[in-house]
Amino acid sequence: MKLAATALLGAAFTAASCYSIGALLLRRLRLTPFVWTTERIPLCFTLGAAILHLFFFAVLAAQVGYWPVLIGPMLAALILAIRSGDWSPRGYQLTPPSQILKILTSAIGAAFLTLYFVYAWAPEHSPDGSSYHLGFIARYVRTHGMEKITTNLYAMLGQGVELIFLPAFIIGRHSAAALVHLCFAVALAFSMFAFGRRLGKPWVGAAAAVFTFVSPVFGIDASIAYIDVGTAAIVFATFYWLHIWDNERDVHPDAWRLLIPAGLLAGYAFAAKFTAFTIGIYALGFVAWKARKLKPVALVAACGLLMAGPWVARNWLLYQNPMAPLGTAIFRNPYTHVLFEQEYSKFLSTYNVADRRTLPLEVTLHGTMTQGIIGPLFLLLPLGIFALRHRVGRQLWIAAMLVSATYVANVGTRFLIPGLPFFSFLIALPLAEWPVLLGGLMIVHAGLSWPSMIPRYADEYAWRMDGFPLREALRLTDTDDFLQRAIPTYAATRLIEGFVPENEAVFAQTGMPDAYTRRTIRVSFQSASNELMADLFNLGWQVGSQPIRGHIFRFPATTGRRFRLLQTAHAPYLEQWNIHELRFFSKGVELERRPDWRLQSWPNPWDVQLAFDNSPATRWRSWETPAPGMFVEVDFGADQSIDEIRIETSADSPSVRMQPERWTGSAWQKLSAELQSIDVQPNPNARRMATYEMHQRGLHYILLMDTDFGAEDVREDPESWSLKLIAQGGGARLYKTTW
């Protein structure tokens, strides 16, 4: 019960602090007269979250993230807001909505909010929430700062919403963070309702709010420590502030101040989720079109840069890539492989959906491939064409198209969430004159979105809420038992926590709930260095990855300082150029490798040493599909006489064609060489060599799920790998190297 209470306290304190900071800034900017009472709480909450996130970024970047430094200013803001009167909602009072509208929206909202609240209050068990969303927050709490994390590409993403989880996590741990995310959902619903009232169409606002709030994918996302709903709240708040500015700019001389929160939130949307940068484009374009002056546009841009700039600068300084973890082919770096980004992006853009024309039905009715549904109601979106006769309808369409433009890069259903508020208004606005019809749609949509109804028309495995975990939320049941049932890899994490020293890292092929362990888990696909470890491991049991091919180039003795192998062929997608060892000979004697040799390669210059380390367990890889112009080069530092080059490589790059060349001082000269290719017997000690190399690189522990590639090979004979089984359970085995 204590943890349940502290979760509520952490979430409530964080939400109240966000509102307080937003309310204080509202008065400081002299914007109070522009904001109506019904708008004040949701708009101040999101604005305060933006400011608070920037403060946390600065504190963590300065490595002073101790709880008094983080919590103290929040408490001060809360006290100041209460004492100054800014806490109390004030503003223009509107005529209350009709009684039937209040009853209908309250009944639907209360039912779904209760469900969401209990789900969020229960122990956090979502895949991404329990891994990187809260995993990094837990790490920041331990280290009191924001580190350069090169073993997990998700660390390179913006964390604008996650940083708002930080104080809640300090006080109430994982569930408190999920409850804070739910606060963003409530703020969004109230702001949508308020926006409809500002338009003079309360039924439209209420219907749009219900359409979004009870959407199945919105509900499950809002109730866990994800960030999509938080991003949607920020995006819509940006649109809202711009709308207020547009209404006031011709009648109030201080209306330009409204562009400050609009710009701050546009930049904050990018900080929350990089794909939300398009709301910034909308903001700049909208202000430029309406104002026809440079100063208002510059103000929005400056405020946006204040929020977004620190994240871009962080990625540039730490990872040499302002777009990290994307844009690797443009901003080359040793932390993410180009081929991984291409393959990952290819999957995200399709989710293995064979025909994209089926996506509308997939995301509204089925949820088989794209993980969840937004609900059948959104098949009515074509009705939105009739909203074009309204000025605000045209603005909603432009915002909807821009916000959803990045959806093609990731067609998972939840990536539609930032666009749902706009879709909802576009459906409701043409029906403004038929409140009975809007009320009926609200009831039908709510009924179809109730969790127990979804399997009757959608895929039974579509991502949705499952059950009503009240006892788990109240901590009346064992939390560990619940998490072991809810998270397939939670038991494996307990093994790691129990048997791995705190200063050690663990290699794993399957993602783990990092937020529930203090150990660093290096998942095979999450960084370039982790992929290298996976390649080492696979070499132990996959003969095709071992150096079983030899290519020998013989040519008349030639003297030179610089030699290279040029790759000249195009290869199929996913194939790579691999070199285990590159050796140079003169009269049958190998040139001894020396420290003054200068090695280069393109691409992947960071791993070129692996082709010269005398270890058959390692290999330099292009990590890109082979194309003409790739090379591996050595500068001996002085002229050497060479008559033979030997390449030891694997069998998984059959399309590669190599040409030896010598630098003449002004150009590369092809060597007229005779090529002999031979087969080499696999090394019987390949398994031991693989773990030796992993051990030498600081990885002394390997965790394998029973379904992982190579797990059976290790399980049958761990001694041949120089591994010792130290713990097992939950379908996982934890090994330690014996080197």
Can you give a write-up of this model?
The protein is an alpha+beta fold. It has 3 domains: 2-329, no CATH class; 492-539 and 685-737; 547-679. It has helices at residues 2-28, 37-61, 67-84, 99-121, 129-143, 162-198, 202-213, 216-222, 228-248, 259-272, 278-291, 294-319, 338-348, 359-366, 391-404, 420-428, 435-449, 470-473, 479-486, 490-499, 528-541, 686-696, 711-716, and strands at 505-508, 520-523, 549-567, 578-579, 581-586, 589-590, 598-602, 620-621, 631-649, 658-663, 668-670, 674-679, 701-705, 723-729, 732-737. Strand 14 (723-729) and strand 15 (732-737) form a beta hairpin. Helix 10 runs parallel beside helix 12 (294-319). It starts with a helix and ends with a strand. The mean pLDDT is 95.
Unreliable stretches: none
Radius of gyration: 29 Å
Helix/strand class: alpha+beta
Total count of domains? 3
Number of helices: 23
The pLDDT mean sits at 95
What is the percent of helical residues? Answer: 40-55%
Biggest sheet overview: 8 strands, antiparallel
Mass-distribution shape:
elongated
Question: End-to-end span in angstroms?
Answer: 46 Å
How many β-strand runs?
15
Per-chain topology:
Blueprint (H helix, E strand, L loop, with lengths): L1 H27 L8 H25 L5 H18 L14 H23 L7 H15 L18 H37 L3 H12 L2 H7 L5 H21 L10 H14 L5 H14 L2 H26 L18 H11 L10 H8 L24 H14 L15 H9 L6 H15 L20 H4 L5 H8 L3 H10 L5 E4 L11 E4 L4 H14 L7 E19 L10 E2 L1 E6 L2 E2 L7 E5 L17 E2 L9 E19 L8 E6 L4 E3 L3 E6 L6 H11 L4 E5 L5 H6 L6 E7 L2 E6 L2
Parallel strand pairs: 1-2, 1-13
Antiparallel strand pairs: 3-9, 3-10, 3-12, 4-8, 5-6, 5-9, 7-9, 10-11, 13-15, 14-15
Helix pairs in contact: 1-2, 1-3, 1-6, 2-6, 2-9, 2-10, 4-6, 4-7, 4-17, 5-6, 6-7, 6-9, 7-16, 7-17, 9-10, 9-11, 10-11, 10-12, 11-12, 11-15, 15-16, 21-22
